[in-house]
Design goal:
Shape: globular
Number of helices: 4
CATH topology: Arc Repressor Mutant, subunit A
Structural class: alpha+beta
Order of helices and strands: HHHEEH
Radius of gyration: 13 Å
Oligomer: single chain
Amino acid sequence: MDNLLSPAQEILMVLNSDSKKEWTMSDIVSFGKMNRQTVYNNLRILLNHGLITEKREEGFPPRRLISLTEKGRKVAEKLEEIEKMLG
């Protein structure tokens, strides 16, 4: 993504971009074209601000399933509006 948004903002838009309810970290890395460490660091920020939820899925290897909260969805929608205005 080539825009003015921060990686955390881009992740919010990725999570809101599809009908998927839950994403794995690998999904976000692939779809958002960001490196794993950037995604990991920014997921922590989003989690701390209550914009995403995370649940652990049992199995091997264990997976973290990430989804937007209602607050996160509203922020992502506003970011999409901003991105459209920037053209």
